[in-house]
Structure prediction request, 330 residues.
Amino acid sequence: RGVPDFLISQGLLERLAKELPISQNLSEYDGILSTHQYSSFVLAQRKTDIHSDVPLINIHTDCTPFPLVEHSGINFHAGAIPKSMVTGAIQRKMVVTGIPVRKDFFYDETTPKEDNILVLGGADGFGNILEISDFVEEFSQDYKTFLFCGRSQEAYTRLRDRHPEQTALKYVENPAELFKKSKFLITKASGVTITEALHAGCIPIYAPAILSWEEEAARLLSSVGIGVYLPDFGSTSKGFLRLLLQSEEQQKLVRERSQQFSIRDSAKLIVDLLEGKVPTAPSSVPLALVDDMKRYEQYFADAQSMQETAKYLNEKIKRWIKDNEPNTND
Prediction:
C-alpha cells in the first residue's frame, strides 16, 4: 500500500523532489517507470512544470487496489488489482499488467513439489519471524521449514539456536529455486514476494500483520481466494493451517485459484505502455475477481467510514474529559 498519507507532509514531498536521483529537465529519458505513489506524483508535477512529454508509468507493486495517486502528468497506471470506483479519465489510464518478477520464478508444472514451508522475515530479517517459527514448530515432522533471516545476524543466531529442527538461512540473493520446490510460503502480503510465490506455484500464507496496509492486503487477497490469511497465532488459525497442510486436494484448489492472479508477460505489457501500445483488452484478470474487488471496496469504504466516526467520537470524549476534569488547585 505504501506509506500512509498522514505521514507525508508537503515539505517532505518537496524534499523528495529535490533528492530524486534523476535529471531535472527529464529530456535525456525515453520513458520513466515509478513504483511508488509519491515519486510518481513528484515526477508528474515536474513534467507539468517544465512542459515535458516524456511518458511516465506509475506501477503499483503492492497487493492493494491501484492507483493510489492521480495526476494529469501520469500517462498510465499499471498494477495487479484495479480499483473499480474511479473516474472515467483515470479508468482509461489503468492497465492490469500484474507485478513483474524475474523469469527465474516461473514454475514448470512437471517439477515435483517438496514438503517445504518457507518463512520470510524481510530483507533485513524484521517482522514477526520468531512468532511464526514457534507457530509452525509442530509441523516440522511433516514439513521441512526454512527461515529466511535476511541480513540480520541476530535473527539468524536466535532462530538457529531456538529451533534447530528448522533451517535458518542468512540473506539469499535469489531464492527462486527454493520457491519453485516448496509448497508453502509464510510472509506478509508484500506485492513482489507474493507474486514471486504465485509464479513459483507456492501457496502464500499471510502471517498476522504488523502494519495496517499489510492487513488490508492480506484480507483482500484471501477474500478473493489468493492465499490464506491467518489473523492471529491462536489455536483456530493453527487448526486451519493444519487442515490445509494435510489436504492435497485443498492445496490444489487454493493453488489453482491463486495462480489466476499471475500474469507472466507483465514486463512486456509495461514496456508496451512506454512505447504507446495500449492493449485492446482492458484486463487479463478474471471478471469474477473484478466483481469480488467491487464488493471488497464497498466493505472497506464502510469500514473506513466507521473508523472515521470512531475517531471523531474518541476526540470528542477526550475534549469533554479535559473540559470537565476537576481543578486540583481548588
In short: Confidence is low (pLDDT under 50) at residues 281-292. The beta strands are 32-34, 56-59, 76-79, 94-96, 114-120, 144-148, 167-169, 182-187, 203-206, 228-229. The first strand starts at residue 32 and ends at 34.
